[in-house]
Amino acid sequence: MKLLAIDTSTEYLSLAVTDGGRVLSSFHEKAAMKHSSLLVPMIDRVLKKAKLTPHGIDGICVSAGPGSFTGLRIGITTVKGFAYALKKRIVAVPTLDVIAYNAEGFKGFLCPVLDARKGKVYACIYRSDGKSIKRLSKYLLLPAKELMEKMRGKNALFMGDAIDQVEIKKDYLKDWYPRAEVVAALGSQYFRKKKYVKPEELEPMYLYSRECDITGK
To answer: What are the residue ranges in the chain where pLDDT is below 70?
Structure first.
């Protein structure tokens, strides 16, 4: 299955085209505030590098958040447009899952943690045995202090833009930014399970009360 994968949830713009798990082409660079001007030209670039036309892909995987409000809206809107125009199926992959898989091979607890402003963070807790990663918690929106209590005493690897708010002895992954190759790998599992999202129903995951455990309890 040929998939186009997109992540615009952070200051990086990450794109990939894969076929059966094999990466045909990719782009992963810091885009600052230029997602809106770079996204469509870079999609064209990675498709051409993969020797595909837009109609040649079988589906689209998008990293759905949480993350940058502006970046997510740009990515989601673009994916909706492509899906409508090309009549392609979409799957939405939680960004915290994508970040966690950057630490594949680590043994212990994993905790992506993103700044949600006003003293709160977006986070999720995973456990890795070095070969596979299992999600242990809901996707959380909670005060940084509550996350610190949850993770105290655990052999944990933190990653994200809010690790400075986790004021405990910690290890952290510097190259944590979500990659489109991982979005495609996780998205392919969604495709196998037919967990499609209709374009009109595709929305960013902002992690408010109806979507997550606000208290973290």
So the answer is: 167-170, 208-217
Q: For the chain, percent helix, then strand, then coil, each to nearest 5?
A: 35, 30, 35
Domain hosting 35: range is: 2-94+178-201
Torsion of CA 177, 181, 186, 189, to 10 degrees: 170
Question: Which residues are within 8 A (CB) of 81 and not within 5 positions of it... i.e. 6 or more apart?
Answer: none
| Residue with token string 């949480």 | 66
- Nearest alpha-carbon partner for 141 in 172, 118, 173, 174: 118
Give the domain CATH number at 165: 3.30.420.40
Give the pTM.
0.92
User: In this predicted structure, what is the pLDDT of residue 169?
Assistant: 56
Instruction: Write out the H or E segment, with its range, that includes residue 112.
Output: strand 107-115
